[in-house]
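Appendix B. Raw example, untouched.
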Amino acid sequence: MKVLLFWPNYDAHVVHPPLGLGYLASFLRTKNHEVTIFDGTLKNASVGDLINEIKSFNPDLVGISVLTRGHNQVKKTIEEIKKNFPKLPVVIGGTQVTAAPLEVMADLGADFAVIGEGELTLTELVSALQSDHKNRFAKIAGLAYWENGKIRINQPRKFIDNLDEIPFPAWDLMPPKKYRIVPILEPARAFPIAPILTSRGCPYNCSFCASNVTWRRKIRFRSPENVLEEIKMLKQEYGVREIHFSDDNFTMDIERAEKICDLLIKENINLPWQCPNGVRIDRLTLPLLKKMKAAGCYAVGLGIESGDQKILNMNQKNLDLKIVPGVLRNLKKTGIESYGFFILGLPGDTRKTVEKTVDFALNNPFDRVWFNLFTPYPGSPAFPGWLGKRKFAEIDWDKHDCSTGIVSLADVSSKELENWQKKALREFYLRPKNLFKLLLRLRPKEIWTLIMSRFFEKLARPLFLFSHKIWRKD
């Protein structure tokens, strides 16, 4: 069969290869299916562009990856597909789909939904579509589908135990040279960049994170040898010059992380790399940091989230704030830059604890920081409390972008939280040392991408308007 996998145009200025679709494509190919990936973000594509791609490729199935903030966009996309190709089946997948398959599938108008890990489920669906058997979908674990006017949800899909058995993503369908990384926190050292997943899942259960609706608090690892094989392939065949480890928990297994570093050193890979998604700060020993630096690591993200220990405990963030200064000192010692991630407006937050979080970020030696606004995602432990009596189909999902205030605190409005975010970013980055360091790192070709990014909206654009106003007065 011919399968078109679609990543909608979620944000035309932040472009990464859609790894999830890459894995689905490579798995489908093991069964001799013909697959293409249409990356709407990369192409800055309209729905009309997708319709033309469907006409050109003539697929037997269209698969769409759904982001929560892109829910409304996917709904319009499926409407257009059904208007132009009424008999073409559409399958959806993603965290929001896994968290609420009944609500999402019904609202989006899809024919099928893949719940959880998708490789086996999608491959079995494609095979079933080639069959005329009456109950051809009933035994496909992890699948939701329409039957007699109602949505039926099959039993959950068991995880693939050995991740090394999954072929590498179909990199030929998403060549790294075509992608760009927005230098919001740590400008890249070299291009092209390839993001890599070396594990799946997370054993923790933070209230604000929806990861575990898919991974069920289980973490699985690829072997260090398998990881190195993909890196070598990316370097040799695709000219990749930098790696981004995009795991939720790259350093969770310290011994495995050290072995990956050992192999990178032994094989003389000589590529710079970073962990932009964040690592567990309590899994960064000094010996591991030294090996990471020797293996090419130059930056790591650190999920701190709050500067108030009670708020962290209330939100099931298993972190002792007392260890943060020591780890930051070790990062400085080894020459690895740090950027801290924080969330304003977490459940339990007050004006006092928000101020405490901002102060914590400003008074510790982070090289970069980023402040998100608390956004309740379907599948996260905090979502049901936020949803309350709201109807799922009436939620404005466009606002679920971590920068739009959709929650209010007892003593802080949602609009005030937005202002807190902008103010905190300005206070950190307008310090002469931090601003100079950021601008010094930017390459000419990165500047336009930065100007068009959300980072510029929150920080630099207000500064530019203020400067322009002063200039006009002079």
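End of appendix B.
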